[in-house]
Write a structure and sequence with these properties.
The protein is α+β, with helices and mostly antiparallel strands and 229 residues long. The protein is built from three helices and seven strands, in the order H-E-H-E-E-E-E-E-E-H. The strands form two sheets. It has a five-stranded antiparallel beta sheet, with no helix packed on it. The chain has a two-stranded antiparallel sheet with strand order 1-7. A hairpin with a 7-residue loop joins strand 5 and strand 6.
Length: 229
């Protein structure tokens, strides 16, 4: 629920000033009242903007029930930095990936007796600025032929390591997968996240802004194509 701004209240002034003191007193009252009115209108605009953003975000979240919005990590980091008034370099990215594989299995090689449905990538965004604190996590399936924003395939930036998480069957070890962090900004995250519905915090606003910016880019590109036909 939004808070209704206070109604405009202008104080009475001396309508027939006869001295300089009365004149300047009137001017002070008028100036202070207009300053207060300006602040009131600013607050009303802020509330309307919040309502508009919440409505737009709600539309995105409702649409997300049936559709997945892809957000480039590099673009999200820029908007996240704006929301928290920090530098992009203040956000540390950690990526953990595991994949169920046989010991001699290579990335991209299929083994019909291994269920790979629980393979995933976990992307953590951690603020290292001491004046701010946040940590956000998104998990995406480890789909080897998934495309990054630059068109390359995920498998081209992955390396199988020798570290494993043994789960009582040698043919179903979970192997850690190293990701080329130079490509981190090109990863495509999916929203709304699998963990549950999005809220209205700074992180969600950064996601919303990133989606809207992408939509604008696509609309501009579409309009340019139509213009050149």
């Amino acid at each position: 629920m939004t808070t209704k701004p206070e109604e405009k209240k202008m104080r009475p002034i001396n309508t027939n000033p006869t001295t300089l003191d009365q004149y300047f007193a009137n001017q002070n009252i008028i100036r202070e009242d207009y300053q207060a009115e300006y602040k009131r209108l600013q607050r009303e605009i802020e509330l309307l903007e919040q309502y508009r953003n919440r409505a737009s975000m709600a539309n995105i979240m409702n649409a997300g029930r049936n559709n997945v919005f892809q957000v480039r990590l590099g673009d999200l980091l820029k908007n996240l930095a704006k929301e928290y008034e920090i530098e992009v370099s203040d956000i540390e990215i950690k990526i953990n990936a595991t994949k169920k594989m046989a010991p001699d299995q290579k990335l991209g090689e299929k083994r019909p007796f291994i269920n790979e449905s629980d393979s995933c990538m976990e992307i953590r965004m951690i603020c290292t600025n001491p004046s701010k604190t946040f940590e956000f996590v998104d998990r995406i399936p480890l789909i080897l032929n998934m495309k990054l924003s630059d068109g390359s395939l995920l498998i081209d930036h992955l390396t199988k390591t020798n570290k494993t998480l043994f789960d009582n069957a040698i043919m179903s070890n979970h192997y850690f997968i190293d990701f080329d962090m130079n490509q981190a900004e090109n990863l495509l995250l999916h929203f709304p996240p699998n963990e549950g519905p999005m809220g209205y915090g700074k992180f969600e606003k950064a996601v919303y802004t990133t989606i809207r910016e992408k939509e604008r880019e696509q609309n501009i590109a579409k309009a340019e194509q139509e213009r050149t036909k």
